[in-house]
Amino acid sequence: MTSMVGLVALTSPIVAQTAADPVLIPAAVLRVDREGLPPISRLDLPPDDLGFSGARLAIEDNDTTGRFMGQDFDATEVATTPDAAMADLDRLLSDGIAFVVVLADDQMTLDLADRAGDRALILNALARGDRLRGADCRLNTIHVAPSHAMMADGLTQFLMWKNWPRWFLIEGSHGADTDFADALRRSAVKFGAKIVEERIYEDTGGARRTDSGHAQVQKQMPVFTQRAAEHDVVVAADETDIFAAYLPYQTWEPRPVAGSAGLVPRSWHPAMEAWGASQFQNRFEALANRPMREEDYQTWLALRLIGEAATRTGSGDPQTLKDFMLSQDFEVAGFKGQKLTMRDWDHQLRQPILLTTGQLMISVSPQEQYLHQTSQLDTLGTDRPETECEFETP
């Protein structure tokens, strides 16, 4: 990638080819970068190759099998802006790319899916909004990124196992914060937690702009959290990274913090070592010279869906691959201890949720005491009887 708006073709070489030319299975990774304030911690500054390095590892992995099956995989990397995203998608579709991995917010992901229509399968590798899997679901979209509901349920199961049922919920003032807070409220009802008090932290625009802004938010936390109803844990919904990082060790009462800070639900974490993850992490770090982030993992997993479908079907036909990915026979390994499968009612990829601190893995949900008649993974997120998704044929 040479600029924030550009195209870079990425193709792993074929080491062993059949007598005929290998079948090319092209995909693209479309990352929509929005301008905004930097993260609270400089340790969280996004690298230029965010998501793209996950794609590069996936292409290597896909070609490891593909070279023996006469298949060749590539992924075109596109870093774009909201204003240019539609034109870049059109360019990819005009090049015949039938699989587009999207790293964008909820609304942009939905807009891109509508633009693609039946010309491409969109693999959502970032947006967590539950409406994308519900009222705004699209037939041409697979959700590799876990939903807010899955994240909330994974966290709630652990908090209930710890016998911390009384929550003090603090919600940010942005739309994404509300979406996560709503998921936490539903999860509390689902698993029997009680939200004893709720407060909204209003973003006044001063935080994170200057050093004094950081100090101001930090100093506000003890006063902001005092006189709350008796609670076991503070649960924060701060998807926009305004205040939650300042909560641990700053609350008026000495309580653990969970949600958007403290104990955080994630799809991936650099400390993950079980189920072959150490070797996977090492390969990524050798390639990217940094630890793997969630965006990298979700992009890697999205492209691995394509590779696994091609291996299992022995086909490079886009429609054949799409049909198989959405079938009950499909499964893919994700270094999370069990095979990942697809929900047919909303096209969400089932997967465990990791519960993490800054340095460590604490637990993995679903917790063993929560059972399900079909798949224990369906205790996380929106189950079939609860779905609001009604696919419309394009």
Question: Strand share of the residues?
Answer: 15-25%
Order of helices and strands: EEHEHEHEEHEHEHEEEHHHEE
Shape: globular
Tell me how many strands there are: 13
Spatial order of strands in the largest sheet: 1-3-2-4-5-6
The end-to-end distance, rounded to whole angstroms, is: 34 Å
Question: Helical segment tally?
Answer: 9
* Helix proportion range: 25-40%
- Averaged pLDDT, please? 92
Main pleated sheet: 6 strands, mixed
Ranges with pLDDT <50 over ≥5 residues? 1-5, 11-19
Secondary-structure class:
alpha/beta
Radius of gyration: 21 Å
Structure description:
With 394 residues, the protein is α/β, with parallel strands linked by helices. Helices cover 31% and strands 19% of the residues. Helix 3 links the parallel strand 4 (99-103) and strand 5.
What keywords describe this structure?
394 residues, alpha/beta, four-stranded parallel beta sheet, 31% helix, globular, disordered N terminus
What is the strand and helix layout of this fold?
Layout: E1 6-11, E2 23-32, H1 52-66, E3 71-80, H2 85-94, E4 99-103, H3 106-116, E5 121-124, E6 141-143, H4 148-161, E7 166-172, H5 175-191, E8 194-201, H6 211-224, E9 233-237, E10 257-259, E11 264-266, H7 277-288, H8 294-313, H9 318-325, E12 353-356, E13 361-365
Parallel strand pairs: 2-3, 2-4, 4-5, 5-6, 7-8, 7-9, 9-10
Antiparallel strand pairs: 1-3, 11-12, 12-13
Helix pairs in contact: 1-7, 1-8, 2-3, 4-5, 8-9
